[in-house]
Amino acid sequence: MSRDSWARYADRGSWYYEVKIPGYKCNMNDVQAALGISQLDKIGAMLERRVRIAERYCDRLQGSPWVKLPPVRPGNTHTWHLFAVRLHLESMTIGRDQFVRALTEENIGTSVHFIPIYRHAFFADYLPPSASFPACDDYFSRCISLPVYPGMSDDDVDDAADALVKVATYYRAD
Prior knowledge:
The structure is a single chain. The chain has a single domain, classed as Aspartate Aminotransferase, domain 1. By secondary structure, it is mainly α. The mean pLDDT is about 90. The chain is built from seven helices and three strands; from the N terminus they run αααββαααβα. The longest helix is centred in the first third of the chain and has 19 residues. About 45% of the residues lie in helices and about 5% in strands. The chain has a three-stranded antiparallel sheet. The radius of gyration is 18 Å and the shape is globular.
């Protein structure tokens, strides 16, 4: 990847990266493995908190004209490691990237998950020039991931949801 996590998520960083060559992500060392094992005792509480955060986002944003919420299939357990929404950009005067920047100005860190594989430089040589993936392009153009982590407070969730609505309302297409 062209940018590591620190470059992408540091203060004023950008979510954008490119895959330039194939490789593996095999970077866990023994200390990281020990920390991971110690976290297993907390996994139930962390999952429960993520579920509550997702429910709060859904309660706050349900029926919003600005976003499509992530689907939840009955009978499945969702880990909510991401809370990716799709913006209804046809209702706004800005695009996804400008929306992300506006949320950053509201002190809400967001990201985009994920850049379609065919958009990475390395893979360009493996596709014919006429290759077209309209559903992927549509999803990618409107998806953003809102913050979600076990230590997130209800006020933090409310702030993120309120900022999303504030930005969308400000840039609404009349």
